[in-house]
Design brief:
Layout (H helix, E strand, L loop, with lengths): L1 H13 L4 H12 L6 H28 L4 H19 L10 H4 L3 H13 L3 H13 L2 H22 L9 H21 L1
Length: 188
């Protein structure tokens, strides 16, 4: 249960202001004229995140199996500290390919979210959380739930804007959270 809660909380906070949250806003605006687009976008986010984070969590558990428990603990703690610093660097949207939008809201969302998550903070956090907790299903459920908690309101509200939130404070709080995870990993 600790793996589920830590994964959900960590990713939902880390996702605020992340490029995938901005992507959710762009996709919602782009397909706002289509009936059922919000449902298709939410489903695309869910399935894309589930696939991406399952692969990331599996990789984390697989990689950690080759290390001694002591070395693994230090590497996981170090990774949390690195992510804490990384969170302080705000994301910017990359250029999307307009051809993907022609595929409709579900496929466009699925593809763009999967690509946007590659090497993203939340994907790396998923790798590290899976390595720390050795609970693949709970970590994947938690990180996917965290992504949904952060992104579904953006899709539903549509007019939501990350610029209205105290982003500096949110990024600093998230950095503290990852640093605390690093400290707890070292201590426990």
């Amino acid at each position: 249960m600790e793996a589920l809660l830590a994964s959900t909380f960590t990713v939902s906070i880390a996702e605020i202001g992340d490029k995938t949250q901005l992507l959710a806003l762009i996709l919602t605006a782009r397909f706002s004229h289509l009936s059922g687009a919000k449902t298709a976008i939410i489903l695309g986010i869910f399935l894309s995140t589930l696939a991406n984070h399952f692969a990331a969590a599996w990789l984390g558990q697989w990689a950690i199996s080759f290390l001694s428990p002591e070395l693994a603990r230090y590497l996981v703690a170090g990774a949390f500290f690195v992510i804490a610093l990384w969170v302080l660097i705000p994301d910017k949207m990359d250029e999307e390919q307009n051809n993907v939008y022609k595929m409709g809201p579900f496929l466009a969302t699925f593809i763009l979210f999967f690509i946007a998550e590659m090497g993203d903070k939340t994907q790396i956090a998923t790798v590290v959380l899976a390595a720390k907790y050795d609970a693949l299903a709970m970590v994947v459920m938690g990180t996917t739930l965290g992504m949904m908690i952060a992104n579904v309101p953006v899709v539903i509200l549509g007019h939501f804007s990350a610029e209205k939130l105290p982003m500096t404070l949110i990024h600093r709080g998230c950095a503290v959270l990852f640093a605390l995870l690093g400290v707890f990993t070292l201590l426990f």
